[in-house]
Each structure stands twice: as structure tokens, then as C-alpha cells.
User: Fold this.
Amino acid sequence: MFISIGKKPTVWKVAVTAAFIAALASAPLAIAQEHEHGSDDASAKEVTGEVVDMMCYVDHNAVGEKHGQSCGAKCIKGGGPVGIVSDGKAYLVVGEHKPINDQLAEYCGKSITVKGKLAERGGIAMLENVEIVNK
Assistant:
């Protein structure tokens, strides 16, 4: 065991301590850079489909303009998850790490085209950083 009571730290100890502190300080920056915030070309996807309130869609297959403009838009404006259904596949739709319910509520039950970064895990598909391409 190394004990240095009453002795001045050696250059070696100071250098090792400084390197360790620098590594700890820079670790969060390296991790943050791994997580992409923009859409890269490899995972960018454009989807055309019906905007749905995901709660009603998953629970009782509520689709169509009649449901969308009565119940669906209210649920989306209230903060419920919003999605888009295209060719039988449902995508959860979010902005850049936040909901975009305010922009999509008026289109509930209608068909639009959106573009975003596709991510899939555990059977759930999500489009993030979504932009509305065609209303």
C-alpha cells in the first residue's frame, strides 16, 4: 500500500490525477456526441399516411376524419401520443426530443407526408425530428 503522509505529491501523482480528472470531465461530451440530433441520410424516412391519436388507434382502431376531428384532435392537443399510419404500419411521431402535437392535431384523421429519422426497437417504430413535408 502506498502512504504519503506529510510528503509533497510527486510529479507522477499530479500527472495521473490530472489525467483522471480530464477523462472524467470529457466523458459526458463524448457520450453526447454519440447521440445524433439531426436526421442523417441513412435513417431518414419520408412517410405519407393518416395522422392518428395513438391511444384510440391502438385501443380500438380509431381512424378516419370523423374520429380524428372530434376525439382524436382533442386527445392530441391534450398531450396524448400522436402517430401516423401508413400501409398498415403505425409510427410514433415526435419532434426533436419533444412532442409536436400542436402542429399535428389539426391533421388528425387526414393524410399528410412527414419526414424524420426512423428508429425501431421492441416492435415500436418512431419517426423523430419530424418535419411536415406535404399537408
Observations:
- Residues 30-35 have pLDDT under 50 and may be disordered.
- The radius of gyration is 24 Å.
